[in-house]
């Protein structure tokens, strides 16, 4: 069975909430799902000052386990329009996998969270594409595959690049039903594409 790893870094829980819908969509597509999180790099005292949520009870991903997956969906919040340092630190340690070409051809997608509507959702994805190119991984965008992406009646996170949400500056805004539906669509579509590539 095709195996997809959903790997997240979540500061306030929004990404983990989106990930639940991503997983639901993946399971609808009939793939096996591995759920992991990226290790924290900030000291506990800094996280306390940021009022960060407690870490979810999800296994920390081991870099050496990445080749076991047939594809990946990574979720993380934006930091000044790009991926957070925790995600970059994680991939900075994959030099051995790069040298062995262990991730070449594996489909990969992204979902994300920003503080505001114009917080850099698409830019966050743009900043990660060089990582995929260097590893020879295949970027699988969401496209406009869910009608909520065309909804202008309210704020709706996400884009053709992946599912998303907006947390507000204080983290008080939670993913909406429309955003969760978009995430579920991304999971299901990604799983179907991954199965075709694996075949």
Automatic annotation (TrEMBL):
Similarity field: Belongs to the WrbA family.
PROSITE patterns, alphabetized: FLAVODOXIN_LIKE (PS50902)
Gene3D superfamilies reported in the protein's UniProt record: 3.40.50.360
Classification via InterPro entries: Flavodoxin/NO_synth, Flavoprotein-like_sf, Flavoprotein_WrbA-like, FMN_Rdtase-like_dom
Domain Flavodoxin-like: 4-190
Source organism, top-level taxon: Eukaryota
Protein name: Flavodoxin-like protein
GO molecular function: FMN binding; NAD(P)H dehydrogenase (quinone) activity
PANTHER family in UniProt: FLAVODOXIN-RELATED PROTEIN WRBA-RELATED, FLAVOPROTEIN-LIKE PROTEIN YCP4-RELATED
GO CC terms, sorted: membrane
SUPFAM superfamilies xref list: Flavoproteins
């Amino acid at each position: 069975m095709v195996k997809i790893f959903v790997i997240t870094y979540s500061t306030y829980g929004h990404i983990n909430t989106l990930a639940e819908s991503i997983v639901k969509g993946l399971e609808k597509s009939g793939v096996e799902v591995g759920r992991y999180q990226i290790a924290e790099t900030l000291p506990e005292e800094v996280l306390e000052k940021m009022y960060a949520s407690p870490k979810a009870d999800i296994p920390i991903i081991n870099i050496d386990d990445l080749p076991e997956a047939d594809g990946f969906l990574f979720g993380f919040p934006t930091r000044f329009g790009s991926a957070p340092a925790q995600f970059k630190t994680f991939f900075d340690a994959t030099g051995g996998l790069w040298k062995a070409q262990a991730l070449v051809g594996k489909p990969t997608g992204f979902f994300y969270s920003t503080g505001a509507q114009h917080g850099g959702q698409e830019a966050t994805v743009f900043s990660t594409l060089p990582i995929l190119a260097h590893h020879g991984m295949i970027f699988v965008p969401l496209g406009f595959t869910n009608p909520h992406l065309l909804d202008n009646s309210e704020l709706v996170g996400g884009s053709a690049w992946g599912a998303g949400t907006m947390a507000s500056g204080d983290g008080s805004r939670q993913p909406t039903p429309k955003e969760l539906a978009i995430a579920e669509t991304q999971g299901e579509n990604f799983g179907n594409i991954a199965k075709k590539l694996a075949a």
